[in-house]
Amino acid sequence: MFKRKLFFMARVVSQVSRFFTGIEIHPGAVIGRRFFIDHGMGVVIGETCVIGNDVTIYQGVTLGGTGKEKGKRHPTLEDHALVATGAKVLGSITIGKHSKVGAGSVVLRDVPPNSTVVGIPGRVVVQDGMKVGNDLDHCNLPDPVAERFREIQEEMEQMKEDIQMLRKGSDVL
């Protein structure tokens, strides 16, 4: 209906559906095949969202815009994406194929294919099956104080050598 410019009727269907299901899908959203909303209460899908095939989203997910700008302002979820409970995916960004968004995450930037993103703001923690970023192995964390002491000691050794060279030079005169 929305594509045929029957805006009022499209909005009526959207609002009636929202009343009965608790799911708000703007009539302008483009949704692929086998899209699945599990426990859909509180789901919001914005006007310029594009959702690929075999995508799953859970309760309380928002696929929203970040402002009143014109044109594409809502996310694109590529095929086989999964967005977990309570996640907020905001702006004209892309969630890549086979990617997952963790529960409660707030995603404001593109997510590459085959990735898992979590947190506020969302950050990629797994890409192509490999962990990304800090592993927080506390035994091997850098020690900036010890590093600076080593640098100071090296500088002192160099200064000692320079002083000895100057002393030898003054003896020659």
Automatic annotation (TrEMBL):
One of its GO terms (biological process) is cysteine biosynthetic process from serine. GO terms for molecular function: serine O-acetyltransferase activity. Pathway: Amino-acid biosynthesis; L-cysteine biosynthesis; L-cysteine from L-serine: step 1/2. One of its GO terms (cellular component) is cytoplasm. Belongs to the transferase hexapeptide repeat family. This is Serine acetyltransferase. InterPro entries: Hexapep_transf_CS, LbH_SAT, Ser_O-AcTrfase, Serine_acetyltransferase, Trimer_LpxA-like_sf. It comes from the Bacteria. Keywords: Acyltransferase, Amino-acid biosynthesis, Cysteine biosynthesis, Repeat, Transferase. It catalyses: L-serine + acetyl-CoA = O-acetyl-L-serine + CoA. PROSITE patterns: HEXAPEP_TRANSFERASES. Its EC number is 2.3.1.30.
